[in-house]
Write a structure and sequence with these properties.
The chain is an alpha/beta fold. About 30% of the residues lie in helices and about 25% in strands. It has 16 helices and 28 strands.
């Protein structure tokens, strides 16, 4: 599907820009088709063949997408590795998780890794003529592959927030199904968008074929920054702004935010973890746009639930919405594998054509995640009586305080509304009497006038039970983030020792 889409888009959209580099130069759809043909032939002459797993150790760039397309045309399996990971973690993914047959890498990303396989070195392009220049065989193309929906195309690594990342496998047919579901919503088809995640993320690996199918122009950003995104949105008159909640919050805090022209923006789209209500409210007002929250995970192909742009405020602020068309969502008891009643916390499960084929080289983990046609995500949540999904955290994030299980997200949703709170994350701290108690890690709105613990608890107890509220407070300037730009809760937990105050 990915290879066929490249050829079809090259004819359909021809000279329209497919990719735009940060420096401003671009590659058209027709040129992209030709580039991937020429690079595929060059890779084949270097020994890359059908069915091989190729670790792609290249920063987010035009070159990355070209290599991904070229490998698809050969029938090879791309295992993209984030440039944000340190060398030891990249080695684990390449050797232990993917079991790669060979690697394509820049010198910088290969440095420090224990690579015992053939490495094809590439240099990043500085213009359309130098994209993968050393690999291209001019005016040649690989043989067309026979149609095979079961052919693995990509291994996409999970975030590893609960342990060593796993490799979610996506076939040609699954990528085709992702394209059908993702482009069926009518939001931003064919318009310009920015890449807000690393290319190795499911948001690119799983969805770039869908974007090519409708002629979307992807503005490539390697190292995400609020400035880079705001510049692109304003300059290229983008209809939507996307990202995870921390990225949206950083944009809103940009000192020059009000100097940009956002009159083209009609929609703010967030994914990943649920967005704090205060961020939603501020983004809607300052961008002058509608808002939608999307929730999914790597294993479900990045396609899950969403909130309607005209949803009631309760749904918009406190839920992750309803299943997208073609997607089934249930909250289940993982022990009995049965759906739990409305209002009961359980494990969020998906049934969808976009769900991964399984975890690469890990049948045990696959059997645990895929049961009777349902994907068990490890996320905890509950369905309300309107049919909306409400998340409370990952499996294991809830902690026992006395006789109660406390889910940090519940307190975070409430405390985010406090006027002195710019950002908040609640993590557990061991306690001899209660077992564990909550610590509110807060980014204050004004560093010279931060909230006190007493202020936060007095505010919070008007909305949720007292036992759910944090009993300690720590102040910080910023949260540590994972390579997927999610708040790194593990690191925050490790920091929760010593006296109250700043960390």
């Amino acid at each position: 599907m990915w290879a066929e889409t490249i050829r079809a888009s090259g004819k359909r959209f021809s000279d329209h820009p497919a990719l735009v580099a940060e420096e401003g130069w671009s590659v058209s759809f027709a040129h992209f088709d030709r580039l991937t043909d020429e690079v595929a032939v060059g890779l084949a002459r270097r020994g890359v063949s059908h069915g091989q797993v190729v670790a792609l150790l290249v920063p987010s760039s035009v070159d990355y997408i070209v290599l991904y397309g070229a490998l698809a045309k050969l029938g090879a399996i791309t295992a993209g590795v984030s440039s944000r990971l340190p060398a030891p973690e990249r080695t684990v993914l390449v050797d232990d998780v993917a079991g790669a047959d060979r690697a394509i890498a820049t010198a910088a990303m290969a440095d420090g890794m224990s690579l015992d396989l053939d490495v094809i070195e590439v240099a990043l392009a500085d213009g359309p003529g130098s994209v993968c220049a050393d690999l291209r065989v001019q005016d040649e193309a690989p043989p067309l592959l026979p149609a095979d929906g079961d052919r693995p195309v990509a291994v996409v690594f999970t975030s590893g927030t609960t342990g060593v990342p796993k490799g979610a496998t996506f076939t040609d047919q699954i990528l085709a199904d992702i394209a059908v579901v993702d482009t069926g919503n009518g939001w931003g088809e064919g318009g310009p968008i920015t890449s807000n995640t690393q290319m190795a993320h499911i948001g690119v690996m799983g969805k770039v074929p869908a974007q090519f199918a409708v002629g979307t122009t992807l503005h490539v950003i390697d190292k995400w920054s609020a400035t880079a995104v705001l510049d692109a949105v304003s300059r290229y008159r983008m209809p939507a702004v996307g990202g995870v909640a921390p990225q949206i919050a950083l944009m809103l805090r940009h000192p020059d935010f009000d100097q940009y022209d956002f009159s083209s923006v009609k929609l703010v789209v967030t994914g990943g973890a649920p967005s704090p209500p205060n961020v939603i409210e501020e983004a809607r007002q300052r961008f002058g746009a509608d808002w939608t929250q999307r929730y999914a995970c790597t294993e479900v192909g990045g396609i899950g639930t969403f909130t309607w742009i005209d949803a009631p405020m309760e749904e918009m602020l406190y839920t992750v919405g309803r299943p997208r068309p073609g997607i089934k969502v249930e909250v289940r008891d993982p022990d009995s594998n049965r759906e739990v009643p409305v209002g009961t916390v359980g494990e969020v499960c998906f049934q969808s054509p976009t769900v991964m084929a399984g975890y690469w080289r890990s049948p045990e983990a696959t059997a645990e995640a895929l049961k009777d046609g349902w994907l068990y995500t490890g996320d905890q949540g509950w369905m309300d009586d309107t049919g909306c999904l409400r998340l409370v955290g990952r499996r294991g994030e809830g902690f026992h305080r006395g006789g109660y299980v406390v889910f940090p997200v519940e307190a975070e949703k409430v405390l985010a509304w406090h006027p002195k709170v710019s950002g908040v994350c609640v993590v557990p701290r061991p306690d001899e009497l209660m077992g564990a108690v909550g610590v509110a890690v807060v980014i204050p709105t004004d560093a010279n006038d931060p909230p006190t613990l007493e202020e936060l608890r007095a505010f919070g107890q008007k909305h949720i039970a007292t036992y759910k509220l944090p009993e300690h407070l720590r102040l910080t300037e910023a949260f540590p983030l994972t390579p997927m730009s999610k708040i790194d809760r593990k690191t925050l937990e490790l920091q929760q020792g010593g006296e109250e105050g700043a960390i």
